[in-house]
Design brief:
This protein has 10 helices and 11 strands. It is an alpha/beta fold. It has a single domain (about 5-285), classed as 3-Layer(aba) Sandwich (Rossmann fold). The strands form 2 sheets. It has a 9-stranded mixed β-sheet. Strands 5-8 form a two-stranded antiparallel sheet. The N and C termini lie far apart (about 50 Å).
Length: about 290
């Protein structure tokens, strides 16, 4: 895709779903597919739940959004996919729910074949070698060392303010200094020092009345969306994406297309580490004992 076409496609997401769908570009001839992996071991989100052979709500939307980055998509819940040659994929996007040990167990909520240790190591080696990686919401657990953080819990769904800390990163155009979104917010921990933080979660206005909310959100601002390098790969993560209305939200769609486009090398961005400047106390937080 030419740069001008890519910019037009990315910008169309801001204007809403119908226009974005009409403006979507098809995949490049002969181009590799993006792999969307969504095996659910710990919890099966409604957005990723399939009914029969039909793709899930999130899968359908992601297929359309990926077209705006010039990519076709292969959607699977089959953990065996990672045992093959991963160079056939342009990028891996994960919405899987569970740490590797969870995803390696035979049983899953979607009755899909498990991930193997060989497949997981193959993925890690492929990403280190340059395979782009995108994580959405629970996908952070799939390869925490690549994403550069982990999640210990989440509280009740509520609105939170996102501070835009990298206004020139692809997908942030027109968002202004901040926005508010109703979501299931992950309380993230153990941040790598080399994160280029795109969105910071400000917990100041969040409800902390419930014990779990207090343990998750009584803390300083912390990264919620970011980019980094892991080995030779470009890696992008956003904690958003729990519910159907989030997946249809133009802000979320814009950020997903921007992050995917950057990992694929369609857009360049300065990803100088900025966590110490925009969320300096993020790693001071210690989760309460369970």
């Amino acid at each position: 895709m030419k740069r001008r076409q890519a910019l037009q496609a990315l910008g169309s997401v801001v204007l809403g779903w119908p226009l974005a769908a009409r403006a979507a570009e098809g995949p490049q001839p002969g181009g590799r597919k993006v792999l969307l992996f969504s095996r659910s071991a710990l919890y099966e989100h409604s957005v990723i739940q399939r009914h029969g052979n039909e793709l899930s709500f999130a899968e359908k939307i992601f297929v359309t959004l990926a077209r705006q980055a010039g990519c076709a998509v292969e959607c699977t819940k089959d953990g065996r996919v990672f045992e093959g040659d991963l160079s056939r994929y342009a990028a891996v996007v994960t919405y899987s729910c569970g740490h590797p040990a969870d995803l390696m167990k035979p049983a899953s909520l979607d009755h899909s074949p498990p991930l193997s240790e060989r497949g997981w190591k193959n993925l890690d080696a492929s990403v280190r070698g340059g395979l782009p990686l995108v994580g959405v919401h629970p996908g952070i657990w799939f390869l925490p060392q690549a994403f550069g953080a982990d999640c210990f819990a989440h509280g009740g769904q509520q609105a939170a303010k996102m501070l835009v800390s990298s206004p020139r990163f692809p997908g942030t155009s027109g968002l202004g200094p901040s926005f508010s979104l109703f979501e299931e917010w992950f309380s993230l921990i153990q941040f790598a020092k080399d994160l280029h933080v795109v969105l910071v979660q400000d917990c100041a206005g969040m409800s902390k009345a419930a014990p779990l909310d207090r343990s998750c959100y009584d803390r300083p601002p912390f990264p919620a969306t970011w980019a980094r390098r892991y080995g030779k790969a470009r890696v992008f993560y956003t904690s958003m994406g729990h519910r159907e209305d989030v997946w249809t939200n133009p802000i979320f769609q814009q950020i997903i297309v921007g992050g995917l486009s950057w990992t694929l090398g369609r857009f360049e961005a300065d990803i100088t580490p900025n966590i110490e400047q925009v969320a300096p106390q993020a790693n001071d937080f210690r989760p309460p004992p369970k």
